Amino acid sequence: MRSLSELMESGVLELYVLGAASSEEIQLVDEMAATHPEVRNELLQISATLEQYAQTSAVKPRASVKALLMATIDYLERMKKGELPESPPELTANSRISDFEKWLNRADAVLPAHADDIYAKLIGYTPSATTAIVWLKTQSDNEVHDDEYERFLIVEGTCCITAGDETHALAAGDFFAVPLHTTHQLIVTSAIPCKAILQRLSVA
C-alpha cells in the first residue's frame, strides 16, 4: 500500500479505530496521519460514526444488573482490603430479620443519598449463592430467571410483588420465593424505600 488513496479505501483505517489492525498497519496509519490531515480527519469521522452507531444500538441494562454489578465491585474491593468472606444463611420461609442482624448493622449498610432507584450491598458470595441487602425506591424491572432461584426477606417498608398472574403484598418480616421461569416485578408501596435481603441461588 503506497498511496494515500489506497490507504483511505483499504479498510485499514476502520480496523485501526476498532483496535483490530496489525502492528504493521498501526505503524503505517500513524506515519500517514502524521503527514496527511486527510487521514487524521478520516480517523475522526470513523470514530464519530462508530460512536453514534454504538449509542443508537445500545441496549440499556436492567437497573438491577447495574446495582448488582456495582455491589460486586464494592465487595471485591472490600476483600482486597482484608475483609473476610462470609456465608449468610440460606433464605427460607422460616428466616427472620434477626438472622441477618450482623450484616444489617454494618456501618456501611446504609442507603447513600446519591443512590439510584436500586442500590445493593453484597454481604455474601459463593459460586452457588449471592446474598445482598437491597434498597428499592420505586419499582424493579420485569425479570424472569431460568437458572437461579430468587428469594426476598423484607426488612423495611412495604411492596407488592407480581409473579405471573399473582400479586403478593409484602411487609417487614415477609419472605417470598420467586418461581423459576416466572416473570416478576416488585413495586414499592411505602413512603420509604423497600429494604430487603435478596438471595439468588443457582439451580442445582
From TrEMBL:
Signal peptide: none
InterPro entries per the UniProt record, alphabetical: Cupin_2 (IPR013096), RmlC-like_jellyroll (IPR014710), RmlC_Cupin_sf (IPR011051)
Cupin type-2 domain boundaries: 140-197
The protein's name: Cupin type-2 domain-containing protein
Species of origin: Pontibacter arcticus
